[in-house]
Amino acid sequence: MEAYRNQELDFAQRAADLVSRMTLDEKIEQIRSSAPALERLDIPEMDWWSEALHGVAREGTATMFPQSIGMAAAFDPALLEEIGKAVGQEARIKYEQYSSHGVRDLFKGLSLYSPNVNIFRDPRWGRGQETYGEDPWLTSRLGVGYIRGLQGDDPDYLMTAACAKHYAVHSGPEPLRHEFNAQVNPKDLRETYLPAFEAAVKEGHVAQIMGAYNRTLDEGCCASDLLIGKILREEWDYQGLFLSDFCALADFHRTHGLTKDAAESAALAINHGCEMNLGFVFLNLREAYDRGLVTEEVIDRSCRRVMELRLRLGLYEQPASVRVDHDLLDCPEHAELNLKMARESLVLLKNDGMLPLRGKFRSIAVLGPNAMSIRALMGNYHGEASQYVTVLDGIRKAAGKETRIRYGVGCELTPYVPPEGKVAETSDDAVMQFFQNVAPTFNLLEATGHGDREAEALALAEESEAVVLVLGLDETVEGEEMFGGSSDEFSGGDKKTLLLPSNQRKLMQDVLALGKPTCVVLLSGSALNVEAEGLNALVQAWYPGALGGQAVGELLFGDYCPSGKLPVTFYHSIEELPDFLDYAMAGRTYRYFKGKALYPFGFGLSYTRFAFRNLEIRADEDVEAAVLVRNEGQMAGRCVVQSYVRWNGGDENQPRWHLCAIGDVTLEPGEEKSVTLQIRRDALYTYHADGSRCVEPGSYTLWVGGGQPDERTAELTGDRVLEGSFTL
Question: Catalytic annotation on 452?
Fold first, then answer.
């Protein structure tokens, strides 16, 4: 038996033997993301690029969970691990289905380019929806959970190969990502931008890490001595695969000016530890070898790493641990898991008593461009669901026969601007072009715009006792790098403002002027400011997944208590923030923002009231906090318990406080339970200007409750969190 087939040997030995049997050109072909079959060694074709950000994406029917930022709002790492397991199982099933018919091309493999553990440092960033928010500790816990779920629990074989991206110091602006040079000081690098990747490596044992497009501290992220060599390989002892983002290596010579041509770019990347190219630049490795820019030994090293991962995925054998019942694909159990996450993800930001709706109104007008939108359920990097429940669908079902539901779109998602600059509120370019060409003498552009649709909406609102406005964005306006110019509100996938699109603002203002009880349900992947006089209730629904509309409808009518918490700060405006290009953390996120937030990180209301008492803290090797939580309201509900910490020896360059532990408990009315939070030593690190870290001796303040210990949270909730101290 050939050594590479011998299961008695470890994967490294088997991979080394396999690579030793390849020619140089064969090895080069195998370290590209689109790897051809090598029949003489019984290696089938494999495309390494597949997506699974919140469900198996881009390869047909699969369970579509809420977008990542929504899942982060659940503050529930254990649930995210369950979802990761479900996604990993479905990805394995899809792979087996396609490959059984000889199809092994793009998006149909076992290498999943998820999760995105970048820090959502600025609400303008369009891809922030893919992340777990602004906090490094929360992102670490959720990222590790999702990775563990995707990869399975076998110590040797992988259900799928997860990939932590985009390493590192990467969070916009999208239009500049191919040329941008992120400058960051050592403290911010270590305290904010790297912890989630470190946790992915050391705890999640993530199989792959993807480098970012930009430069960081003058080095290309996919060819960085600091990021790859010193930190990832030496400090963290990472043994997995490092790959480039799609076409990122071409940026070395096209936009970054690091190299002169593709052969130099290929050599720069592989010599610095980028072992796989998502894209085409590694096609030039033979030329780089012939020019003496790279050695065969370096190519061998990369190929061994690639083949070792293929073996762990079951290249020549399929162990029982990765065999999955195909009935699990898009199954009822995963649908229930999807709905559970959608319910936990919704954040109630405002409520003057209008919600829950049940029994209060005989008729409700449901208005807005996202009310019946399937796209607004999805978020980016989505798959295809077998069933979609829009917000309108969910409201109708939850309302039942007792409440009359009237629907009107009111306006399009964003204003449409024809080439002449005349504004018409429709996104149907073909229709607009028709009217421009064949009916220029008639004022039909305005006649087909939102004016009559808003009139319809206002009439429906007038005829109803209450209004639910379903507003926000979708992946067509915020997301990954988009082409086609910019507007006053959006640029290349990023936002230029924290306001709703102007046509939605007008619709909301005109509806509020009617004086009807009004709730806004906001579907977006990022923070927006929709505050307006007369608004009675506000629900942040994110992009809630294929069944998200059901969760929204049930929440509005009080079938369960909302429990979601904000994983990002909601600011009043971008004027409160530093420049988007500034990667320093001063003035950003709840840890360093000195202003008064619109809605703080960790905030979220409930339909019931939770009281906290008897905080007890034990501090030795680890720190443990116990607290009694009592449901003093009239509804059963889930309470997210949060703990924040501050070392009292710090100066103004240290965070005000930072999240260090979370837990949850579900309580019936009048029920009380003790909740114990474990605060790990690595959650107590203090980071210094040179990037060094330690658990400092001395006094610490610890807060435990339903949110942050800031004045704004106390103002919004009417409660203050418990405060204690300990000494290390």
Answer: no
